[in-house]
Amino acid sequence: MLMRQRSTHEGSIIFKSHVSMPCVRSKILSPQLKKEDIIQLTESFVEHVQKGDHSVHGWPNTCYGVSKSAVNAYTRILAREVKEEGKGTEKGGQEVLWEEEELAERRILVNSCCPGYCATDMSSWGGTKTAAQGAETPVKLALLPDGSPTGEYWTEGHIVDWTKT
Length: 165
Description:
Blueprint: E1 2-7, E2 10-16, H1 22-25, H2 35-51, H3 63-83, E3 90-91, E4 94-95, H4 98-106, E5 108-114, H5 131-134, H6 136-142, E6 152-155, E7 158-160
């Protein structure tokens, strides 16, 4: 996670991510999705992997893909929470963590991004982009002005609908 404060009342949160499996995405597209739901889904994935029946339940064979789908969903949730009106200790009957309230007061932008397939130790140096090229989108997001898109998934410097790719 990268956070850069732009001024006293503004900043950006950027999660590194990538597009992941359709079967996972279909489980996390609800506009009412909450953090607790993501936790429950990921725990379900782990449980089914441990039992060896994850494929039967529609889960892919990739922990990485499931984790990145969860990051993309959390990005949407956090951005939605930041946009919500009203402050205080409760919103819609749920307790608000101080971090969320702080984000709302500072007009924070929340986005996730994919740096691309970079030649780093994670890819065994097999990537097609340099680390500097991979940093271009996260840096762009950190420098977005107030009022820019939030709750989005970015790659190659552009917003991509990760739910349809």
